[in-house]
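To illustrate the input format used throughout this study, we show a single complete record. The first block contains the structure-token representation of the backbone; no residue identities are included at this stage. The design step must infer an amino acid for every position from geometry alone.
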């Protein structure tokens, strides 16, 4: 009985992240949900619900195309995601994935999913000069 109650709480919390309006279905839960910042562009490259469910497959497909086939596009690239979804800290600079406010970290920590992208990739966009050249 105790496990059933705990499982219902977990399912309700996960539904509130995955399905908009599901918090109403789960009742007025006191389970905290992640705070996710909006992107800085006009619109995402895909529908929000599609991205919530498929972002990992898109990133893996992009990785395969880039590494194995030499195809470099920007539509589903990690760099483009970070450029649009960078969260700025108190110093007005993008935070890294170690910061709980980081766009990726917010959901991944909530869902207890390890992020391993940033073992090799930058977790924040690179700074640009006035002319648009990348620094560092």
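Output of the design step:
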């Amino acid at each position: 009985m105790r496990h059933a109650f705990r499982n219902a709480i977990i399912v309700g919390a996960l539904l509130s992240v995955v399905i908009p309006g599901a918090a109403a279905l789960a009742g007025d839960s006191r389970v905290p949900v992640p705070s996710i910042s909006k992107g800085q562009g006009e619109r995402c490259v895909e529908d929000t619900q599609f991205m919530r469910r498929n972002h990992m497959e898109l990133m893996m497909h992009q990785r395969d195309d880039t590494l194995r086939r030499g195809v470099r596009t920007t539509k589903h690239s990690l760099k483009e995601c970070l450029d649009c979804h960078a969260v700025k800290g108190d110093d007005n600079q993008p935070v890294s994935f170690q910061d709980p406010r980081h766009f990726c970290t917010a959901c991944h920590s909530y869902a207890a999913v390890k992020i391993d992208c940033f073992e090799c990739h930058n977790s924040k966009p690179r700074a640009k000069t006035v002319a648009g050249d990348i620094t560092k």
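Structural context for interpreting the output: The two ends are 56 Å apart (CA to CA). Confidence is low (pLDDT under 50) at residues 14-26.
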